[in-house]
Amino acid sequence: MKIQPLQSLQPVSGWEEFFRHGEGYLNTALAAHRKGVRAFTPEILYNLAAMAIEKFVMAALMRHGTMPYNHTMADLVEAMERTFPGRLGHLGDQLLAMDKYQEICDLDGFKISPPKMEEIPAMLELAGKLQEITKKDWIADLSAK
């Protein structure tokens, strides 16, 4: 079987919308955190950051014609490493650590542990780094054409 080069794969339609949704989730979380909006608890901010990360990763993968097995952080990291070897670097470990707050895939082991507010800035920063990685890849492809 011949392996097809990554750049010749067909993008999955809708990747741009995933990216825009990721920006919306991240911008909402950043603004709420910066303003100290009390309605935005650490659990809500965590979920907004996680949704932003998921959307950015999905946009990057879809743009390159691939999808993750599932949408846990572990599956997203695995798909990113398979598609963009080494691109995540140490960010992969940080993404995997986010799964500890919500272990919700196994009904028998269902567990939610809300983060503390002091953990939120690192999560928002991580989401911002995923946004940058996705944008850099997109811009690099545009420059190459």
CATH topology-level fold name? Four Helix Bundle (Hemerythrin (Met), subunit A)
Q: Could you give a short account of the major beta sheet? A: 2 strands, antiparallel
How many distinct beta strands?
2
Helix content: 55-70%
- H-E string: HHHHEEH
The CATH top-level class label: Mainly Alpha
Folded structure, characterized:
By secondary structure, this protein is mainly alpha-helical. It has one domain (13-140): Nucleotidyltransferases  domain 2 (Four Helix Bundle (Hemerythrin (Met), subunit A), Up-down Bundle), CATH 1.20.120.330. 60% of the residues lie in helices and 3% in strands. The chain has a two-stranded antiparallel ribbon with strand order 1-2. Strand 1 and strand 2 form a beta hairpin. The longest helix is centred in the last third of the chain and has 25 residues, at 120-144. The protein is globular. The mean pLDDT is 86.
In short:
This protein has 145 residues and is an all-alpha fold. It contains five helices and two strands, in the order H-H-H-H-E-E-H. The radius of gyration is 16 Å and the shape is globular.
Itemize the secondary structure elements and their pairings.
Layout: H1 15-35, H2 42-63, H3 73-83, H4 91-98, E1 102-103, E2 111-112, H5 120-144
Antiparallel strand pairs: 1-2
Helix pairs in contact: 1-2, 1-5, 2-3, 2-5
